[in-house]
């Protein structure tokens, strides 16, 4: 995996993303739209797991995977955040910045799920928190917003392997709120979307803010 995150590869992917943005511009121009008539919103990727020090299960047993569904070493969790997530997101940010397009804004989601990530010490599984259901009152504030990494030990239930480390129901609603905030009633704006409070909005979404 480390060979996929060299400076040369990051530069290549940045160019690819920039060219993709330019092709969107070309398609819109060919359809008769000027850049003042629409906004391109480039979204970054959110961190699905905390750094190693933030994982709630010990590294010295199988519990991380058999219970938490997050069977990764501390150093790998650090690398995922410090290298992978940063590389993915700097690629998007730099591509937008160097595209030359006046109508590109960035919705930065990198820290949107912080505090609610997979195996993070600030939350827990339903049974660990004494919560009957993910729909129970307060469950959104006490449980994870990211799906477990499914293997033979954690595959049972209504799950698919490809859901691993993707946002669960509450995570998806949090991101929907972020997108709603960025759309801003049509006056599109960029910024960093973060969780700002416990509880839900009137729309039933986690409390998020764009900064």
- Count of DSSP-assigned helices: 6
Mean pLDDT over the full residue set: 94
Shape: globular
How many domains in all?
Answer: 1
Annotation, overall tally of beta strands: 4
Distance between the termini: 33 Å
Largest sheet: 4 strands, mixed
SS content category:
alpha/beta
Helicity, as a percent range: 25-40%
Query: What pattern of helices and strands is seen along the backbone?
Result: HEHHEHHHEE
Give the topology, please.
Blueprint: H1 7-30, E1 40-43, H2 63-66, H3 74-98, E2 104-108, H4 126-129, H5 139-142, H6 169-183, E3 191-200, E4 206-210
Parallel strand pairs: 1-2, 2-3
Antiparallel strand pairs: 3-4
Helix pairs in contact: 1-3
Key phrases:
globular, four-stranded mixed sheet, single chain, alpha/beta, 36% helix, 211 residues, 11% strand
